[in-house]
Amino acid sequence: AAAAAVAAATDAYPTLPPPQQLPPKAAAATAAAACLPSGLTPQARRNGTFAGGRGRRTVSAGAAEGDATAAGAAAAEAAPYTPAGSAWAADELSKLWDAVPRALLKLGKAGASPKHLASLKELLASHALVKVQLNGDPSGAVAAGEELAEGSGATLVQVRHRTILVARGSMPQAELLGFAAAELTKIRRYHEKRRDAPEARRADGDSESGRGFAAGRGARRDG
What we know:
The protein is an alpha+beta fold. The chain is 59% helix and 9% strand. A 4-stranded mixed beta sheet has the order 1-2-4-3, with helices on both faces. Keywords: RNA-binding. InterPro entries: RNA-binding_CRM, YhbY-like_sf.
């Protein structure tokens, strides 16, 4: 009677063939489906995307367009701003920027004030080129640079992100390039001296050690 019951249950619920007896593609699909959680929609099963699981990441056209727009805005914000009609070449602009190691004037979030304009005039009297650092939103750097140039009689050379480069307004372009070349020479010599200073100190130390050793030997001989 027990054997008959087992046979009846087997006939009522037939078993599937093991995965190895299925074709390769069908076996792979069966194994993959077994790993997915239950209650998925057909689209989620096709895409392989579900909460807390791994699958293909699908991006809608609107999201992709938004990402491209944001990337374009970031690139435009990071690009240098050169006033229209500027006669500076790219290599000349690089020299002008390199000739000023750091910003000599800093602006707050409120932008340029009469005090800033007065300070810039004093700086331009002794420096042909001045870098100004804006600590606020970089999108306002161009407007701040134009305001500084207009209020101080300077020339706006270029704006790079939050840094504004202005030049003495009455200085011709050739003289300004000559000033930049002289400043670059000073900067190069300064770095060369800093680089050679440790070697010079080591050489002086070796000389002092040698003289001290010779003096010691002489003292021992005299003794």
